[in-house]
Amino acid sequence: MYRVIHQLKERNFDRTITKSEKAVLDYLEAHFNQIPKYTVVKIARESYTSQATINRTAKLLGFKGFSELKYAIKEDVDLLSSETQTHIRNTEYILSKINFSQVDSLVKHLYQHRRTILIFGLGASNVSAQYMARQFLYFGIPAIVVSELQMLNQFKGYTLLILSSSGETQRCLQMLENAKRANMFILSITKKASSISENSTYTFVHDVPVDKMEGISREQQLHMILMINEVINKLKLNYFHHTT
């Protein structure tokens, strides 16, 4: 279990951090692998802060002082040194950021409206939408992937499932508004507290800060694929368990 690295990336603290504390956090994140070899004097000098600020920042991260923080960082670095552990770390972290408790309501609606399902996604999410539609076909669910706003005019009364990692993409929001005007049910697999999640009949959300995760780009879809697979697995378990 990582004790420091995720805190440095997310920075979800109970209070507002000072400018000098931010400088220390930035330095720790930028030089993470080397911190176990550095002294507090060196870090203070190179981050243009003080030893007192570094110890205060260590307490902000949940440690008694710099020595304890330095030891915890060394443990994290040892785990990070293994390529396999790195992939496990990213996957475990992503899984911890998915709200699996929401999936049942969304899956129930998908099953009840399985003859009238549209799926919409842009960019990498469009690839995920194609993958999801193909999986649905194994259950005899004829889901249709739509790519243009005008297509909704041909499918009044359908359910629209929006796949959007950020939940704020402009074209996705336009599709949502068009679906609302067409009195469609709106489902989504998207970001927590996003515009799309808050305007969906049922939503399945993640809280992955994608842009901050080292080595993971804006187009990363691992969390979306994991969520889609959970929907597929729940459909099979709850409604199609006799399907081979």
TrEMBL record:
Q: Start and end of every HTH rpiR-type domain?
A: 4-80
Q: Which protein, by its recorded name, is this?
A: DNA-binding transcriptional regulator, MurR/RpiR family, contains HTH and SIS domains
Pfam (any one): SIS
SIS domain segment(s): 106-237
- Record organism: Halolactibacillus miurensis
Q: Which GO terms describe its molecular function?
A: carbohydrate derivative binding; DNA binding; DNA-binding transcription factor activity
Q: Which positions, given as ranges, span the membrane?
A: none
Q: Which domain of life is it from?
A: Bacteria
Keywords in alphabetical order: DNA-binding, Transcription, Transcription regulation
Task: Say if the entry is tagged with keyword Transcription regulation.
Answer: yes
Record carries keyword Glycoprotein: no
| Record-level GO BP terms | carbohydrate derivative metabolic process
